[in-house]
C-alpha cells in the first residue's frame, strides 16, 4: 500500500487528498463537461471530486495515480467475492470468444436460473432483468396484475431503485406527494409506512383494501443502516397472508450475501416475490425477479392464453446476457460451496469491534454497527450521549441514525482515503470474502489517524 499522504503545516484533509490524487482531479474536470455533476451514479458524488480508479483485485483497488486503497464500496455491494475473482473472471473469459450476445436462449441461463432456485426455495420461477430497478419495477407490475389492486406499501427510507413509484418515500415525499418528474397518480398509489411499526402496517392493511403488496429491504434501510429485526419480517408475513396482500423482499443487496440463500433463508421467511441483482450476476450487469409460479405466470404465454387473460409484456435486450450468466453461475457456485458469506460476515464483525475500540479510546462519540457483511458509522450529528462499546442501534430513531453531518461525512471519507481506505458514502462499508486480517488492521489504523486529522481541521473536539 502507498505511504499515507504526509501532513504539512496548515494542511487540511482536502488539500492532502488533492495533492495525492491529481489524476482523479484531471479526469473529473473532463467529466464535468460530459456528465451532470461530473458523475455517472449519485452515490459517487464527493467534494472536491470523486476518486478515479484504474484497477482492482480482491479487497484492494488502485487509483489512476497508483495509490492503493482497501475498498469498502465493493461494486456497490455486488462483489462478495472481491474484485476480479479468478473463477468468475475465467468463466467470463471462456464465454467471450463464443459470443457476448446471441439474442437467443442458451445453456448458461438455464444453469443460472437453476442455481437461484436451488439456493432460494421460494423462487419457483425466475425472470432475468438487467438491474435491481428493473426487477422491482416488474415485481410491482406483477403484484398489481395478480391481485387486481393498484397500490403498494413501502417503508420510509428503504431503497427499491430509481423508477417513478420507488422514488416516493425513499429520501423524501413520505406523505405520498410527487417527487419532481413523477406523476401525481403514481405517487398517490404508494403508501409509505414508518419502518419497524407493525401496528401501523396492520392498520393500513386493515383499512385499505387497495394494497397489492408490501415491499421491504429485509435487513432494513441500506443493508441495516436503519435495522429491522427478523421478528418484524415474520410479522409482515403473517399480516400479508391474513389480509390477502403479497410480500416482496428486495434482496438486491442481501441476496446471496446474508447467507447463500439470502435473508429469506437466513431468517426463515418465504416471500411471494424477490428482487435480486448485484451478487446474483457476480458483479456483472444482471438481475432477476423470482417468486411463486402463479404470480410469474402473468409472464407466461401459454398460461395466459389458456385462461384467456392478458399477458404482461417484458423485453430487455440484455436479459440473461451470456457473459453475465457465466459470471452468475460461477459466483453462485462458489458462494454455495466455499463459505464466502460466513467469511465476509466474520471480518465485518472484526472491523466493527476494532473501530469501536478506536472511538472509545479516542473519546469520540461515534459508533460502528451492522449485521452480516456490513458496517455502518454513526457519526452522531445530534451529539447524543453514547458508548461506542455498548451501542444498540435499535434504541435510536431512523432520523437519529441518519443524522450524520454531511460535512463531517465528506471530510472523514477524504481523510480515510488519504490513509488508504475507501469508505462507502453513507458512511460505512460492505465487506467481501477476500478482506482479511491485513485489511482489518489497516482500516482500524486509518480510522485512528483520520480522527486526528479531523481534529486538526477543527471538525472534532
Describe the fold and architecture:
The structure is a single chain. By secondary structure, the protein is α/β, with parallel strands linked by helices. The chain is built from 19 helices and 15 strands. The chain has helices at 13-20, 22-32, 74-77, 86-95, 107-119, 132-147, 164-167, 184-187, 198-207, 221-224, 230-242, 262-267, 293-296, 301-306, 322-338, 340-362, 398-401, 406-418, 437-456, and strands at 53-57, 60-63, 68-71, 125-129, 151-155, 190-193, 211-216, 226-227, 246-250, 273-276, 287-291, 367-369, 374-378, 421-422, 428-430. Strands 4-11-10-9-7-5-6 form a 7-stranded mixed β-sheet, sandwiched between helices. Strand 9, helix 12 (262-267) and strand 10 form a beta-alpha-beta unit. Helix 1 crosses helix 18 (406-418), helix 5 (107-119) packs parallel to helix 15 and helix 18 crosses helix 19. The protein starts with 12 loop residues before the first helix and ends in a 5-residue tail after the last helix. The relative contact order is 0.15. Residues 1-9 have low confidence and may be disordered.
Would you summarize the structure shown here?
By secondary structure, the protein is an alpha/beta fold. Helices cover 41% and strands 13% of the residues. The longest helix has 23 residues, at 340-362.
Amino acid at each position: 500500500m502507498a505511504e499515507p499522504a504526509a501532513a504539512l503545516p496548515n494542511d487540511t484533509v482536502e488539500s492532502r487528498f488533492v495533492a495525492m490524487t491529481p489524476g482523479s482531479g484531471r479526469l473529473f474536470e473532463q467529466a464535468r463537461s460530459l456528465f451532470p455533476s461530473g458523475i455517472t451514479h449519485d452515490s459517487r458524488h464527493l467534494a472536491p471530486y470523486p476518486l478515479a480508479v484504474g484497477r482492482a483485485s480482491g479487497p484492494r483497488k488502485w487509483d489512476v495515480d497508483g495509490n492503493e486503497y482497501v475498498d469498502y464500496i465493493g461494486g456497490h455491494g455486488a462483489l462478495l467475492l472481491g474484485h476480479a475473482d479468478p473463477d468468475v473472471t475465467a468463466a467470463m473469459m471462456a464465454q467471450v470468444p463464443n459470443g457476448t450476445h446471441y439474442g437467443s436462449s442458451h445453456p448458461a441461463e438455464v444453469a443460472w436460473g437453476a442455481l437461484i432456485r436451488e439456493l432460494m426455495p421460494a423462487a419457483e420461477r425466475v425472470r432475468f432483468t438487467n438491474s435491481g430497478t428493473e426487477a422491482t419495477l416488474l415485481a410491482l407490475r406483477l403484484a398489481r396484475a395478480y391481485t387486481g389492486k393498484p397500490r403498494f406499501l413501502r417503508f420510509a427510507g428503504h431503497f427499491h431503485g430509481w423508477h417513478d413509484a420507488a422514488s416516493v418515500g425513499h429520501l423524501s415525499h413520505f406523505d405520498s406527494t410527487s417527487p419532481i418528474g413523477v406523476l401525481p397518480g403514481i405517487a398517490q398509489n404508494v403508501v409509505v409506512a414508518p419502518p419497524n411499526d407493525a401496528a401501523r402496517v396492520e392498520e393500513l392493511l386493515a383499512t385499505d383494501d387497495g394494497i397489492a403488496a408490501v415491499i421491504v429491504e429485509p435487513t432494513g434501510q441500506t443493508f441495516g443502516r436503519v435495522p429491522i429485526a427478523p421478528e418484524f419480517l415474520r410479522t409482515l408475513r403473517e399480516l400479508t397472508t391474513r389480509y390477502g396482500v403479497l410480500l416482496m423482499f428486495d434482496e438486491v443487496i442481501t441476496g446471496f450475501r446474508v447467507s447463500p440463500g439470502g435473508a429469506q433463508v437466513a431468517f426463515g421467511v418465504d416471500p411471494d416475490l424477490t428482487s435480486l441483482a448485484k451478487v446474483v450476476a457476480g458483479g456483472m450487469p444482471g438481475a432477476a425477479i423470482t417468486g411463486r409460479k402463479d404470480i410469474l405466470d402473468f409472464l407466461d404465454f401459454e398460461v395466459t392464453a389458456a385462461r384467456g387473460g392478458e399477458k404482461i409484456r417484458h423485453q430487455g435486450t440484455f436479459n440473461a446476457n451470456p457473459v453475465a450468466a457465466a459470471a452468475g453461475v460461477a459466483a453462485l457456485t462458489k458462494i454455495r460451496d466455499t463459505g464466502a458469506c460466513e467469511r465476509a460476515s466474520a471480518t465485518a464483525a472484526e472491523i466493527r469491534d476494532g473501530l469501536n475500540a478506536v472511538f472509545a479510546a479516542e473519546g469520540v462519540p461515534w459508533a460502528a454497527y451492522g449485521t452480516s457483511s456490513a458496517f455502518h458509522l454513526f457519526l452522531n450529528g445530534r451529539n447524543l450521549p453514547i458508548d461506542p462499546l455498548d451501542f444498540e442501534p435499535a434504541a435510536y430513531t431512523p432520523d437519529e441514525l441518519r443524522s450524520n453531518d454531511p460535512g463531517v461525512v465528506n471530510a472523514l471519507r477524504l481523510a480515510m482515503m488519504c490513509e488508504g481506505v475507501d469508505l462507502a458514502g453513507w458512511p460505512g462499508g460492505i465487506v467481501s470474502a477476500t478482506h482479511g486480517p491485513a485489511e482489518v488492521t489497516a482500516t482500524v489504523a486509518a480510522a485512528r489517524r483520520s480522527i486526528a486529522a479531523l481534529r486538526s481541521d477543527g471538525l472534532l473536539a
